[in-house]
Design a protein that fits this description.
- The protein is of the alpha/beta class and 395 residues long.
- 38% of the residues lie in helices and 22% in strands.
- It has helices at 3-10, 70-83, 91-101, 110-129, 134-137, 158-170, 187-198, 214-228, 242-251, 267-275, 291-304, 315-321, 335-344, 371-374, and strands at 18-29, 37-38, 43-44, 46-56, 59-66, 145-151, 175-179, 203-207, 230-234, 257-260, 281-284, 308-311, 328-334, 345-346, 355-356, 368-369, 378-380.
- The strands form 4 sheets. An 8-stranded parallel beta barrel has the order 6-7-8-9-10-11-12-13, surrounded by 7 helices.
- Helix 11 links the parallel strand 11 and strand 12.
C-alpha cells in the first residue's frame, strides 16, 4: 500500500488513522560467566526488550526499548488507548500528546522509555505507509553510522575479554570498549591484555558506569590515558554528578574525552549536561530519550553547542535514527543488544567497514519480528496470531 491508499484507509485526505496498538516483552538470559554480566555498578542475568506495534492502513510499525517489563504495562495502560484513532502521519504531534499524558505518572525513566518505544513505532509506521526506508523519511545527514564494539564486562576472564574485543577488530571495527572500575586494581592487567590483543592502532574506550569518586576517577583517567592510550572515559563518576564530570574534563588528560548521556530521559537532562560543561562528547539512547522525535531535539542541541553526539546501543534503530544527527560521532555496538536484536528480528544490519548502513531496500526500519524465535522468551503479552489476538502484516 502506498501513501494514497494509506490516506484513503483513514478516511480524510492526508490522514491515516491508527486502528490498534499491541505490546509485548521478552527476556533473554545473558551469556556471561555463570549466566551473569557485570559492570562497575551493576550485575545482571538477563536483558528485557519491550516491543510495541502500531497498526494503520494495513501496515504495522514496530518500536522497542530495553528496560523493565513494567514499561510494557505502562505502554498498554497509558499510551495504547491514547494513540488509537490518531493520525499515523504525525509522530511529533503524538509524541507531544504522549508527553502530556504521562506527566503525573512520571516522565523520566519508565515513562520516557515507553514513549520512546511508541515514538519509534510511529516513525517506522509512517515510513512503511510511505513505502520508504526510515532513513529517507528523516532529515538525514549521513548514510552510515560508525560503530565501536562494546562489551568487555568486568567478570569476563582475560581470555574472553581479549577474544571479544579483538574479534570486533577482525570485523573491521577500529574502536572497542570495556567496562572498568568495579575492582579498579584489576583494571591494569585487563587493559594490558586488551591492548595486546587489539594492537596499537585500535582505539580503546573505557566505561566505569559511575563507579568512582571524583579524585579516584581523576587518578585513573591519567593512568588509562598514559599507560594504555585510552581516549574515552564514559561515566567515570555518576552522570548526575555534573560538577565531578566538569572537574574531570578540566583536569584530566587533554586527549581523554569524558562522555555521558545514556541515562538522560528528557531534553532538560541533556541541557543540564551541556550547560554544566560536563562532557566532551554527548551520548543519547534513542530508546530512552523520547524516541526519534526526542533524539532530533537532542541532535539540535548538540549541534548548537558544537558537541558531537554518540548513539547508545539499540543498533537496529540507531542505524537509521542517528543518520539524522548532524554532529554524529559513532554508535555503541553493544554485545547484549546485538544478540537480542539478531534473535528477535530479520533484517538487522551488520557492520561493514566499521559502520552500520541502513537498509534502503526495505520500508521503515527494515525489520520483521521472528515470532517463533521470540516466543520462548515472552514475559508479557500474547503472540499476534494467538486466538483472540489481532494479527497484522509488517510489510
Amino acid at each position: 500500500m502506498g501513501a494514497a491508499e494509506a490516506a484513503a484507509a483513514g478516511g480524510a485526505p492526508g490522514e491515516c488513522r491508527i486502528d490498534a496498538v499491541d505490546v509485548h516483552a521478552f527476556e533473554l538470559p545473558t551469556d556471561g560467566p555463570g549466566g551473569t554480566e557485570q559492570d562497575g555498578t551493576l550485575e545482571w542475568d538477563s536483558t528485557t526488550m519491550v516491543l510495541v506495534r502500531v497498526h494503520a492502513g494495513g501496515r504495522t510499525g514496530i518500536g522497542y526499548t530495553y528496560g523493565d517489563v513494567s514499561a510494557a504495562a505502562f505502554l498498554s495502560g497509558k499510551l495504547a488507548p491514547l494513540l488509537t484513532g490518531r493520525d499515523a502521519f504525525s509522530p511529533p504531534a503524538l509524541w507531544e500528546l504522549m508527553g502530556r499524558q504521562i506527566r503525573n505518572a512520571g516522565r523520566p525513566g519508565v515513562g520516557a522509555m515507553a514513549v520512546s518505544a511508541a515514538d519509534i513505532a510511529l516513525w517506522d509506521l509512517k515510513a512503511r505507509l510511505l513505502d520508504l526506508p526510515l532513513v529517507h523519511v528523516l532529515p538525514a545527514y549521513h548514510d552510515r553510522v560508525p560503530v565501536y564494539g562494546s562489551g568487555g564486562f568486568t567478570n569476563y576472564p582475560l581470555d574472553r575479554l581479549a577474544d571479544q574485543l579483538s574479534g570486533w577488530v577482525e570485523q573491521g571495527i577500529g574502536r572497542v570498549k570495556l567496562k572498568t572500575s568495579r575492582d579498579p586494581e584489576s583494571d591494569p592487567r585487563r587493559l594490558t591484555a586488551v591492548r595486546k590483543a587489539v594492537g596499537a592502532d585500535t582505539e580503546i574506550f573505557t566505561d566505569a558506569n559511575g563507579a568512582l569518586g571524583r579524585k579516584e576517577a581523576l587518578y585513573w583517567a591519567h593512568r588509562f590515558h598514559d599507560e594504555w592510550d585510552v581516549r574515552w572515559f564514559e561515566e567515570p563518576v555518576s552522570s548526575a554528578d555534573l560538577e565531578g564530570l566538569r572537574m574531570l574534563r578540566a583536569n584530566g588528560p587533554a586527549r581523554l574525552e569524558i562522555a555521558a548521556g545514556e541515562y538522560a530521559y528528557t531534553t532538560r537532562d541533556f541541557v543540564n549536561l551541556v550547560d554544566g560543561r560536563a562532557v566532551d562528547c554527548l551520548q543519547a539512547d534513542v530508546t530512552r530519550c523520547g524516541g526519534i522525535t526526542g533524539l532530533l531535539e537532542v541532535a539540535g542541541l548538540a549541534a548548537a553547542r558544537h558537541l558531537d553526539l554518540s548513539a547508545h546501543c539499540a543498533p537496529a534503530v540507531s542505524a537509521h535514527a542517528f543518520c539524522a544527527v548532524r554532529r554524529l560521532r559513532h554508535l555503541e555496538y553493544f554485545h547484549d543488544h546485538v544478540r537480542f536484536e539478531q534473535l528477535m528480528f530479520e533484517g538487522t544490519p551488520s557492520p561493514d567497514g566499521g559502520a552500520l548502513r541502513p537498509d534502503t531496500g526495505r520500508p521503515g526500519l527494515g525489520l520483521e519480528v521472528k515470532w517463533a524465535d521470540a516466543e520462548p522468551h515472552r514475559v508479557y503479552g500474547r503472540r499476534p496470531d494467538a486466538p483472540g489476538t489481532r494479527a497484522a502484516s509488517t510489510d
